[in-house]
Amino acid sequence: MASTSDIRKGLCIRYNNDIYKIIEFLHVKPGKGPAFVRTKLKSVTNGKVLENTFSAGHKIEDVRVETRSYQFLYADGSTYHFMNTDDYNQIALQESSLDTPQLLKEGEIVTILFNTEDSMPLSVEMPASVILEVTETEPGVKGNTATNATKPATVETGARVNVPLFINEGDKIKIDTEKGNYMERAKE
Predict the structure, then answer these.
(1) pTM of the model
(2) Which of 26, 70, 110, 118 has the fewest CB atoms inside 10 Å of its own CB, making it the most exposed?
(3) What is the pLDDT of residues 30-40, one digit of tens each?
């Protein structure tokens, strides 16, 4: 058993007869009344997100997880196929267990969390950033790069990302997988 002081991003807990992964949390200590922890939980079985508030010191049942590296092979509709990089075993997961499937490129190495009790895959953790090639965007106008203006661009996985005006088709860009935002132009 853990308490609210152990809450952190990525922690898997058992709540309402389901397993949830904490995707956001905030410790709140109001001037009046007891402290509490406001959380945003994502179900690892169906992908639903819910918000919950735990009072300070509340006991939560954490789920022991183990992580393994897998390589993304391909997507077949809403089923995503991964291969273990150690023993080459393959598993198939539903799209709901991925946080940002639109940024997943074939060959990408991800970390998959497994429940140690029954070895069931819980969720897929993407790397902090991915490098993708821009396949479609409007051409940049010369001299119009001094402002923080952005334009929409489509990357090789089909995801849409807002990029600065100086980015052109064929450029490789680094994208933050947590928020899906442009970070920088990738260094070749």
Answers:
(1) 0.70
(2) 118
(3) 888 888 888 88
